[in-house]
Fold this protein.
Amino acid sequence: MSTTESNASPSPAGRVRRRSTLNYYVARTMDDVLEAWQLVYMAYRRAELIDTNPFELHTIPQAIGPQTVVITGCLGPMPGTTLSAYVDNPAGLPLDSVYPEELGALRKEGRKLMEVGLFGDRRDHLVRSSEGLFDLMRFAFYYGVHTGCDDAIIGIHPRHAPFYQRFFALEQIGAPRSYATVKNNPVVLLRLDFRAKRDALPKGLAFFSNNQIPASVFNARYQFDAESMSGSTLERYMAFRQKAAKAA
């Protein structure tokens, strides 16, 4: 796939079409979200980060709400890669369970945070999926910008950290720790300061600058409203998770 075309533009359906094999869009319906998080389940199971569940879904409670955007790259009708971003809210962020002091310190400075996660790709190596990741991160970046965030944070396996630091100028702000959500695999906390002044942009941020996304693309994102959630597969999955957690 090529990500060199600089004239990407939103279609009326909210998709951003490019001269590539993938079309990127913001989830607008429950079905869009389920397809994306089924892909996350497949990718996490392949990496042995989670256990099986009968719904074949994976997400986290803090991503269920209007603060979230779900981004997917599709090959025709088939989702090929996905990422979600969730703005800080009273329920907190998933990484609060691992880095409460670090995130608390940023909040005390009055900074508005956004976490980026739930990355899933049909391909099983970061090198093979990195071009798609550039577009997914671009969507997440502009979602943060348009919602007034100061920082984006991610929790990533330490061996993948150099990729994000090199291409997206993320800085490490937390030491490697064990992350219970992914079977106690190691995680490291990285941060992107949206307001930082840089003499030169790394490849990823330069790509974002040359391929901007307007706020209108995010206006019709799925809001996880009570009516569509009631009785849904996603609601039943979350109830299943809560019951399993209590049993454990």
In short: The longest helix spans residues 126-146. The beta strands are 9-10, 15-17, 23-26, 68-75, 78-87, 113-121, 151-156, 171-179, 185-193. Confidence is low (pLDDT under 50) at residues 1-19.
